[in-house]
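Reagents: none. Just compute today. CsbD family protein.
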Amino acid sequence: MSSEPSRVDANTKYYKGATKETIGKAIGNEQMQAEGQALKLEGEGEYKAAQTKGQAEGYKDNVTGTVKENIGKAVGNQQMQAEGNITKNTGDAKKEAHQY
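Predicted 3D structure written out:
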């Protein structure tokens, strides 16, 4: 797995842990149950890290786009203004996609 937090990897880890925990509970294996709980918690942490990373990228794009759009307006460069608007909108979409 990569070192970057991934919501898909986090969900996979969480559900593997939940399954292991349930099986451990069903067969009375406390070690398996504890390992499943630990895996679930690790998945939850990775999921939150991925959300935070996505939110940060969205804010960065939003600010960068706003600055570029405003500079484009100030100097009368419509292409720069449009590119800034696109970057700003991309940032908004990233923030929305990674909401808590």
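The radius of gyration is 21 Å.
Action item: order primers for follow-up constructs.
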